[in-house]
Amino acid sequence: MTVVGFTFNTFSENTYLLIDDATRQCAIVDPGCYSPDEQQVLRQYIETNDLRVSLLLNTHAHIDHVLGNQFVLDTWPGTPFLLHRLDLPTLRSVPTYAANYGFPQYHPAEPTGELVAGQPVHIGETELEVRFTPGHAPGHVVFYHAPTATVIGGDVLFQRSIGRTDLPGGNHATLLHSIEHELMTLPDATTVYPGHGPATTIGEERHSNPFLN
């Protein structure tokens, strides 16, 4: 599996393509592309590299991670869209405040299926493990790929920081529990691709993250 990242919108949100190298199928995770220029960047990369979009995945449904959901579904019709059921209220609340955050042209999209902790997600021959990591958002999940020691982590763990917990549905103690039991149990060499900022590793955060020590 190859991970390709893009940074979109005014929140500098990281959108990821997870590419199955054998089949060239890919999943789009947390599409934050809002402007036509941002949308074109994502579409052009996929088309230029002859990729086939097979899944749309959201780690959680805060506005900066879902701005491009409907664009993806319009551009690649029939793509399954998966989200944890506990974050459906988070997703459905976005239209009520999108304009206030500077996104008046936000188009809501509804999931076609749900992510369940412990159930695998497949992209071609690639299998991802879904891990339930609430605390930043009620239905937050991360995607773990053991063969490449990779986590697509959303807004749970950042380089020397953690996700904020002052938004509706957030809980600091719950987030720390999620990090301890779902991320810190992974090998130190595991790379974490977060929803904002640079990639890090479990080992680096275990030893240097002030929120965990």
N-C termini distance: 32 Å
Structural class: alpha/beta
CATH class: Alpha Beta
Number of continuous helical runs: 6
InterPro entries: MBL_Glyoxalase_II (IPR051453), Metallo-B-lactamas (IPR001279), RibonucZ/Hydroxyglut_hydro (IPR036866)
Pfam families: Lactamase_B
Domain Metallo-beta-lactamase: 12-196
Keywords: Hydrolase, Metal-binding, Zinc
What tags apply to this protein structure?
14 strands, globular, 6-stranded mixed β-sheet, zinc, RibonucZ/Hydroxyglut_hydro, Metallo-beta-lactamase, Chain A, 213 residues, MBL fold metallo-hydrolase, 6 helices, 29% strand, alpha/beta
Explained architecture:
The protein is of the alpha/beta class and 213 residues long. The protein has one domain (2-208): Ribonuclease Z/Hydroxyacylglutathione hydrolase-like (Metallo-beta-lactamase, Chain A). The chain has helices spanning 36-48, 63-66, 69-75, 88-97, 172-183, 202-208, and strands spanning 2-8, 13-19, 25-29, 52-57, 81-83, 113-114, 120-123, 126-132, 141-145, 150-154, 157-158, 161-162, 191-194, 200-201. The strands form three sheets. It has a six-stranded mixed beta sheet, covered by helices on one side. The chain has a six-stranded mixed beta sheet with strand order 7-8-9-10-13-14. The chain starts with a strand and ends in a 5-residue tail after the last helix.
